[in-house]
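hey
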């Protein structure tokens, strides 16, 4: 949707009129001054903010202060410990450092998908553009991206393919599907015919692409190898081990276990070791992302090395270029991954 087709931005006076309150009351709700507003009035104002699609404009404020120099980072993750994820941390670090060098700040807010629409960063925070990392079923991810695009500001989306996206949306991602193909090729070359992919229940586009890449490799080779997907309640050590233990108790040992990432693969490998199963002699274990923590696993884990920090840097560079030129020069940036076979052959 182009900017010309969008309805005029609602003002604070529009919200006040619709809610039958004063503009000052609306301002109090927006800025969290709840001591001046009753619960019933707050709900009425918030309902009209949502209905009218109101979002505080930085234009008036910019008449009094310098150019808005902050970028918003939205992380839609069901886990309250969303910054504990190695990939997310690396992306945020790369993004923040590029913005910092250009004298921009980065404001981060993480939330479950159901809270996105009412989040402070979406409704009120004055930023020059948004970066977003979004989990959840694909239709919900696309709806969230559309909601961000409707704010009439540039948006950089991580790890999500968006064919035909709007002109003011850019995607930056690593080649997760290609990494999955590398894993598949590696395992097929070692005559593995049954692969167990252990993934978290919460859908992430990167994980979906990694599993799809393994299946691509099998199809390209004309192999009869099978991929079974095992969902753990979360990526936590305890949840992964619980799901994998239940699987092993009722199924024969697979030829290989592929973790959605290195921590998932490590949890699986330690459970196998505790049960006296030899890795890689009895079963192969493969991770993904190759951050520093995987080096502590023994045997040295086979994995795919992620350019996560560079993904964040590329996003920051793309956003800064867009703010300078008015357009994203490239709608999609894909960074390559590298296969690390570990000490196994």
């Amino acid at each position: 949707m182009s900017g010309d087709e969008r309805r005029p931005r609602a003002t604070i006076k529009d919200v006040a009129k619709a809610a039958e309150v004063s503009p000052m009351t609306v301002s109090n709700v927006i800025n969290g001054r709840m001591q001046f507003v009753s619960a019933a009035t707050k709900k009425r104002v918030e309902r009209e903010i949502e209905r009218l699609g109101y979002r505080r404009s930085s234009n008036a404020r910019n008449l009094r202060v310098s150019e808005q120099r902050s970028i918003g980072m939205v992380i839609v993750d069901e886990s309250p410990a969303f910054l504990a994820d190695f990939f997310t941390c690396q992306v945020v670090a790369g993004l923040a450092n590029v913005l910092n060098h250009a004298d921009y700040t980065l404001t981060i807010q993480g939330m479950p998908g159901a809270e996105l629409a009412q989040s402070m960063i979406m409704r009120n925070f004055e930023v020059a553009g948004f970066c977003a990392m979004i989990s959840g079923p694909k239709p919900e991810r696309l709806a969230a991206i559309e909601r961000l695009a409707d704010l009439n500001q540039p948006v950089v989306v991580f790890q999500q393919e968006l064919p035909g996206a709007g002109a003011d949306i850019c995607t930056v991602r690593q080649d997760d599907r290609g990494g999955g193909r590398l894993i598949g090729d590696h395992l097929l070359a070692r005559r593995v015919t049954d692969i167990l992919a252990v993934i978290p229940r919460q859908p992430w586009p990167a994980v979906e692409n990694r599993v799809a890449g393994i299946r691509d490799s099998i199809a390209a080779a004309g192999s009869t190898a099978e991929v079974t997907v095992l969902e753990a309640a979360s990526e936590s050590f305890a949840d992964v081990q619980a799901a994998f233990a239940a699987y092993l108790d009722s199924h024969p040992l697979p030829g290989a276990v592929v973790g959605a990432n290195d921590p998932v693969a490590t949890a699986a490998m330690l459970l196998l070791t505790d049960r006296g199963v030899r890795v890689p002699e009895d079963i192969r274990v493969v991770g993904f992302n190759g951050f520093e923590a995987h080096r502590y696993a023994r045997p040295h884990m086979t994995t795919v090395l992620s350019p996560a920090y560079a993904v964040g840097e590329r996003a920051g560079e793309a956003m800064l270029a867009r703010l300078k030129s008015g357009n994203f020069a490239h709608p999609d940036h894909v960074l390559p991954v590298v296969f690390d076979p570990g000490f196994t052959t």
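The CA atoms of residues 17 and 23 lie 8 Å apart. The chain is about 40% helix and 20% strand.
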